[in-house]
Specification:
Strand content: 5-15%
Radius of gyration: 14 Å
Strand order of the largest sheet: 1-2
Number of domains: 1
Structural class: mainly alpha
Order of helices and strands: HHHHEHE
Length: 101
């Protein structure tokens, strides 16, 4: 999970599902259930390009960091509930992302 997504995900989980769900989410990191992916120096420019390109949605920094990391790591499968936006993004390394669930 890209580092920039963790805070946004924790906030959404906490506000929509409650503090207990947020605590479980954070505990999952302690148990090693998620691999945390730092933002690499080259990702920042790509994140900025994506935010500019999709500014009408708007595509935020956290979502753009998912795309940048996926491109760098050659990942084509993305876990998201935002099917509309991630389904419309055209990554550099594949025709489209496979979205789950």
């Amino acid at each position: 999970m890209p580092t920039l997504v963790i805070t946004e995900a924790a906030y959404l989980i906490g506000t929509r599902l409650g503090a207990d769900a947020e605590v479980r989410f954070l505990g999952d990191f302690a148990e090693g259930l998620f691999e945390v992916e730092p933002v690499h120096p080259g990702d920042w420019l790509r994140i900025a390009e994506l935010v500019a390109r999709y500014r009408d949605w708007p595509l935020g920094t956290a979502d753009a960091s998912v795309v940048a990391a996926a491109e760098r790591l050659d990942i084509t499968r993305i876990a998201t509930v935002d099917r509309r936006h991630f389904g419309a993004i055209r990554p550099r390394h594949t025709a489209a992302f496979e979205l789950v669930p």
